[in-house]
Amino acid sequence: MLGVLPACLLIEANIKIRAGMEKTDDYYLRAVIAILSSKWTLPVLYGLRDGTRRYHEINKAVPDMTQKVLTDMLHKLERHGFVERVAHPTVPPKVEYTLTDLGGSFVGALVPVVDWTKDHLHEVHEAQEVYDSNGLISID
Known about the structure:
mainly alpha
């Protein structure tokens, strides 16, 4: 059952089963879920949408993220081909991150989702309140 694997294993599993799995919408949905499985993926990618950022700038943009998690996330996004890391040979070291064309196209696809959320999140909250007020248990 692929849905219970950690994201990195799910992506690897998708690569390994690619030849045997029919590439239906479900296949591609599972692949995108594997890429997005961390709660930090979207904030980091979205934080890079306006251009190159240094590590500390990304860390400030997502303040509740630990440095270790940010480092791991940036490595993961670099591995996926979404982020390019450039280390400049200076003292102190200067490292910059920027979206690749692939990462930029992915973030471009997210902008309409963010816009939809801005327009409809209040409706989601209202539906949750109605559901909760009917005595049903919320699983948030």
